[in-house]
What we know:
Blueprint: E1 5-6, E2 22-23, E3 30-31, E4 40-45, E5 50-55, E6 60-68, E7 72-76, H1 81-84, H2 89-110, E8 128-131, E9 142-145, E10 154-159, E11 166-171, H3 195-200, H4 221-233, E12 254-260, E13 270-275, E14 278-284, E15 302-311, E16 339-350, E17 356-363, H5 364-374, H6 383-390, H7 396-402, H8 406-443
Antiparallel strand pairs: 1-2, 3-4, 4-5, 6-7, 6-17, 7-8, 8-9, 9-10, 10-11, 11-12, 12-13, 13-14, 14-15, 15-16, 16-17
Amino acid sequence: MSTGFLRDNRIDDDDDFNARPIHLPPRSTTTVTSRIPTKTTHHIPTTTSTVFLDLPSSPHSTYHIYHDRICHYTLGPTSEPDKEDSFTPAAKAARKARRAARKAECAAAKQKDWSHYPADEEEGAVEFFLHSPHLAFFNPPRVLRAGSTKSAPPVALIHNSFLWRRWSIQLGAVLAEPGVIDPRGVVGWRFNSDKGERKKDTRLLGGYKVRNFRWWGESGKGYVKEIHRRRKENTGENLKTASPAPTPPALADQVIYLTWTSPFSRHTRRYHFRYQEIDFYWKGTGTVRETRFCGSWCRFNHVKLVAAVPLPSPPTANHSQQKTKEDVKLRGKGREGVRTTSICLAKYTSAVTPLKCGKLVLYDDIMLHFHQTHLHSQPHPHFAEQISSRGSGFEDDTLAEFKKTRFYHVVVATAMCMVIGDKQKRETIRKILEIAASEGGGNA
């Protein structure tokens, strides 16, 4: 059996992974590096020899992340010129047209029938929408939807914590069931679970009541009015009517935790999550170089997603007695002595414009092959034939099915947690500096 090698040609400014040549695990069939890929090499084992196919470019999906209203976010494959630069005449005209379209949308929403759950978008959407519902005196989770609007099917609930240290992401098919996520964007009260039980089992969902009054600015104005109208109509009905059977609490299939690992260190741009016994890191990278004007000042605008794939120990008798820095790569408890190699799966570049957060690039072919090889899933039967025949990517239907997988949604959800956290940190630091400057000027 042939043995592949992997070499990290360059150590990033905050890269702690091994840079020496190391053996790939027997189940691995891809040779990549932890750097942002510009040329992908697919290692396909055969019965007699090893064939290396060099692809001229890596097929990828680009998502432009924009602010929607105040607290929502849209992720789409197309760029919006009016949100890229705010000072051009074209941007001003586009903003005026967008305001007119928003007024028309609000007028249409008043005539909308809120007696039923809004219709979902058609399947196969390649866009995402992060909805941030607002309820007074509550902090409901954000909802990641596989579509471009608030009526798209929900795929994940994102909970934040104090000072951005930990994010919990609930995933499961139950979120897309009718009534679980109501038009307000929160879990309905019928599917609520006990607060004490939620501490024991984090997969349980917490619901929110529709109160008899609505505070100004809360989500789901039309839906709340419809509920209030129904309650008035049902007043005075026969109380002896049998009540419906209680609905069991909704239970998510899986919970992923994204942790800000080192807030007070030189590696502040590092987030960690674990998925199917594999560690993933969103971490800053210095290998990306901007070619535009003042591009050298954008060194800290890029973050990459790497997967730390465990490697088998070398077949040496005294390996257990030789413990070096290269042998310990994961800082988790009980992970000492585990040798890993890093595979780059995605890249995020932040933007300085007020209406755009940044650009997320997902390397589809690497992610698909990694998913089939390491995440306990059956490999595609024609995976090698597709690469050999086309040499430039995969079939559109294969990628379309892959973008519906939970792993793809986990990557997008963790990326949005990182984006929101970094944005709020920058705003907090800016406000602190403004207060300090104003106090200093006042004392002068």
